[in-house]
Amino acid sequence: MAYGHSHCNANLPLILAGGKSLGVKHGQHVDFNLPKIGQYDMSDAKGHYNICSRPVDSDARLSNLLLTMLQRADVETDRFYDSLLTISDVVV
């Protein structure tokens, strides 16, 4: 987290580890900012701080990851808190 002092709940670095039997893709980095911003510009401190302190993609929610994890564990649910969808990038 480039600006860890902000204590925001956006753009958190997370690690998803799971067994192959759960159907989780391994060995990848998924960044939900890049499709919206194209690339990071560390020379623009204010712009970068805005990325670190607020979600760039309002549809990229932690609850979506939690919903995906529940479904991979065979929990029959179609939502978790404010989830919108499952994350297809992390499942086989």
Keywords:
elongated, 92 residues, mainly alpha
Please outline what is shown here.
The chain is mostly helical and 92 residues long.
Total count of domains: 1
Structural class: mainly alpha
Low-pLDDT segments, ≥5 res: none
Tell me how many strands there are: 0
Q: Shape from CA axes?
A: elongated
Sheet with the most strands? none
Mean pLDDT: 81
Rg, Cα atoms, Å: 15 Å
Topology pattern, helix = H, strand = E: HHH
N/C terminus separation = 28 Å
* Range of helix content: 25-40%
| Helix run count | 3
Into which percentage range does the β-strand content fall? Answer: under 5%
Plain-language structure description:
The protein has three helices and no strands. The chain has 92 residues and is mainly α. The chain is elongated and about 45 Å long. 3% of the residues are buried.
Topology diagram in text:
Layout (H helix, E strand, L loop, with lengths): L33 H4 L7 H9 L8 H11 L20
